[in-house]
TrEMBL record:
It comes from the Eukaryota. InterPro entries: Amidohydro-rel, Guanine_deaminase, Metal-dep_hydrolase_composite, Metal_Hydrolase, Metallo-dep_hydrolases. Pathway: Purine metabolism; guanine degradation; xanthine from guanine: step 1/1. Keywords: Hydrolase, Metal-binding, Zinc. Belongs to the metallo-dependent hydrolases superfamily. ATZ/TRZ family. Coiled coil: none annotated. This is Guanine deaminase. It catalyses: guanine + H2O + H(+) = xanthine + NH4(+). The keyword Metal-binding applies. Binds 1 zinc ion per subunit. GO terms for cellular component: cytosol. It comes from Limnogonus franciscanus. One of its GO terms (molecular function) is zinc ion binding.
């Protein structure tokens, strides 16, 4: 069955989604009716009568469940070939030794096409239905990345990295005018794809590699054209110090972006480990979200980001893999790393309540959607939303040592979060289209 031609269908069986930031709804025998990629009904008790007009019926079998598509708020597509390399170095050394020397190669469109096809297929196979991608500095290869995403059916926001100073290798920086022209060209080409699932993000790399005039011009472009913005903030202590030296007139890192006009309700800031209460209050005020990247924060030894503190300040949060600062492209891994990070925080902070699996699942789905302002479109199975979903098959994990046990739906979900792998992601749908299966 090729579901690319079957956008009207019914799916029946165990279904789960987040009801709030710390509650998952579990429905053992639910039915979702999908028409033209949208959820037109969701019956949680299996009472609905399915008619022939509703199309093909997919019945989930024992050990399978359906959950909303996973959302990666921060991933660097060109860094994929470096995954797992150089993680014993702090951020700025790692960028110089590993990251920039790889990214500069994406001036070669053929190389870029090969890697990007692999990256998008890989993230889809991990269950990522929506990804916010950094490209390299190059205009042509970033446009190619958007085309490949569009062809393979993922939902995404894509941006060309903008940077006009302090890049410690040759041939990997742009003059301000050219950088702005190229950023605009990427935005225009992405728009011309006429695929509403693929959007562009204005992408100042971070405050160290962008001067204030560039940041201000990029912010204006984004605001004038209602575009997303993505950048990095407060990831590493040395980085924060360098930003202070480069911008002595600003109160702190957040103030640099705020003075530039970068902080909007469509801005995604990766990391945000060392933000002060003042900075978090500004982010809340602007409606700016944080992409929590716990794998990268741990393995690049950047620090522990406190999601509870962000939430307590009213700042929206989702998860990012931050490949290849992060060494795993799966948001299931990001959920686990978020759990581990908050456990470590609980050892350090008296009375601290670590995140639980319901909360990290929210970050990976509805929380990520809310961070993007897409909570009315994706993130859960509410009627009217697009059908972005995974069929998870727990049987590959169910038969440990050859012993098959009966587990409840809630137990299957816990097992998926704590020990799930790509092999457990059986099918992936974006807007009702099957975009990955095995
Ligand atoms: N800060 C600026 N560029 C990067 C990057 O590529 N990865 C990470 N983790 N942080 C950055
Ligand atoms: Zn990053």
């Amino acid at each position: 069955m090729n579901f690319k031609q079957h956008e009207n269908f019914v799916i029946q069986g165990p279904i789960i989604h987040s009801l709030s930031s710390n509650e998952i709804g579990y429905y053992e025998n639910a039915t979702i009716v999908v028409k033209k990629g949208k959820i037109v009904s969701f019956d949680s008790e299996g009472k609905i009568k399915v008619s022939a007009n509703d199309g093909h019926v997919i019945k989930l079998i024992n050990g399978q469940f359906l959950c909303p598509g996973l959302i990666d708020l921060h991933i660097h597509a060109p860094q994929y070939p470096n995954i797992g390399l150089g993680m014993d170095m702090p951020l700025l050394d790692w960028l110089k030794a590993y990251t920039f020397p790889l990214e500069v190669k994406y001036g070669d469109l053929e190389f870029a096409s090969k890697v990007y096809r692999y990256v998008v297929k890989s993230t889809l196979s991990c269950g990522t239905t929506m990804a916010v991608y950094y490209g390299s500095m190059h205009c042509g290869s970033t446009i190619k990345l958007a085309e490949i995403i569009s062809e393979l059916g993922q939902r995404a926001i894509v941006g060309k990295a903008a940077m006009n100073r302090n890049i410690p290798i040759d041939n990997y920086t742009e003059e301000t005018t050219q950088c702005l022209e190229h950023t605009q060209k990427v935005a225009d080409c992405v728009k011309n794809l006429k695929n509403p699932l693929v959007e562009t993000a204005v992408t100042p790399r971070f405050a160290i590699t962008c001067d204030m005039p560039l940041l201000q011009s990029l912010a204006k472009m984004a605001v004038d054209q209602d575009l997303y913005i993505q950048t990095h903030i407060s990831e590493n202590k040395t980085e924060v110090e360098v930003v202070k030296e480069l911008y002595p007139e600003c109160i702190d890192y957040t103030d640099v972006y705020d003075k530039a006009g970068i902080l909007t309700n469509k801005t995604i800031l990766a990391h945000g480990i060392y933000l002060s209460d003042r900075e978090l209050d500004v982010l809340k005020e602007r409606g700016t979200c944080i992409a929590h990247c716990p794998n990268s924060n741990t393995y690049l030894q950047s620090g522990l980001c406190d999601v509870r503190k962000l939430w307590n300040h009213g700042v929206k949060v989702g998860l990012g893999t931050d490949v290849s600062g992060g060494c795993n492209a799966s948001i299931v891994d990001a959920m686990r790393c978020a759990l581990a990070t908050s456990t470590h925080l609980s050892f350090q902070i008296e009375g601290y309540k670590p995140l639980n699996f319901q909360e990290v699942f929210y970050l990976a789905t509805l929380g990520g959607a809310t961070a993007l302002g897409m909570e009315n479109k994706i993130g859960s199975f509410a009627v009217g939303k697009d059908f972005d979903a995974l069929v998870v098959d727990m049987m590959p994990l169910g038969g440990t040592a050859g012993v098959m046990l009966e587990h409840t739906l809630k137990e299957h979900v816990q097992k998926f979060i704590y020990c799930g792998e790509t092999k457990n992601v059986k099918q992936v749908f974006v807007e009702g289209k099957l975009v990955h299966s095995k």
